[in-house]
Amino acid sequence: MLLGRKLWVGLAILFSSAVLISCGPSLEQQDDTTTSTVSPLAECVASLVPGSSTVTCEGVDYDLGIPEECFATPCGLIVDYPPSGVTGEQTDALTNMTALGNAAGYVVVQPNGSRGALGAGMDRIFFDALIGALDIDVSRVHMGGFSLGGSQVWRFVCDHSDLIASAAPHASGGVPCVSEDNRLPAEQVDILMLHGRKDSVIPFARGVAQLEFVIESWDMTVSEVLADEPTYQWTRWTNEQGTVLEFIEFDGGHCYPDGGGSGGCGIDTPIHYGEAALNFYIAHPKDA
Known about the structure:
CATH topology: Rossmann fold
Strand content: 15-25%
Structural class: alpha/beta
CATH class: Alpha Beta
Number of helices: 7
Number of strands: 10
CATH architecture: 3-Layer(aba) Sandwich
Order of helices and strands: HEEEHHEHEHEEHEEEH
Distance between the termini: 35 Å
CATH superfamily: Alpha/Beta hydrolase fold, catalytic domain
């Protein structure tokens, strides 16, 4: 997985370059009397409406939840990535992130699909266009996801840490960051990780390995147990830079804790992913 990461990033760079060429005019084609700051995907977000809607951009459907006040006052942005084969609507039924986020002053985006490194590059361009169209508060951009969606979150932590203030990847073994020593980027991001102890799809040991990778990369030296209950444990690490890493391990498999339906663990635990992630986002904006 570590060796394959370099190939994926190389392909992502080529893909992003191709998108920029095909979606927007070249510098030679632009009027040299003005400086253009328009996103190449600006047309996709030209007709946004309050409430729930779906925007299709470059063949990808993005489910949006936009509070009406966000057209007048800068709001935050939460991206809630689904696992493989799950729609944004199905994801929202498990996280309740649209209702939770909207009530707290966030625009919520749930992409219909998590498409790997190439998709992360395309999504970044869309998110930038959305941020520009709604004048999003760039200190309050957050990202979470489950399973393959969690891996997508790690790609943003690795390659787009300038965009996000904090992240909440769940049930994901993570992806390595490509650098000379395979460490996380220098621009650190507050992270909340969750993983089920009985996960047979992404084994718990892989989640612990990713946790240790973050601790080592960012020299997280101070630890504190926030909760130690029969069904879950919640631990926090910090470093001298003030970066926060939290890890929730719970009695469950490859599922959302305290969630119902096919994607929910169906267990009695006080941890709900959507609520835990939102509270973490609110507490961890990007430093000025």
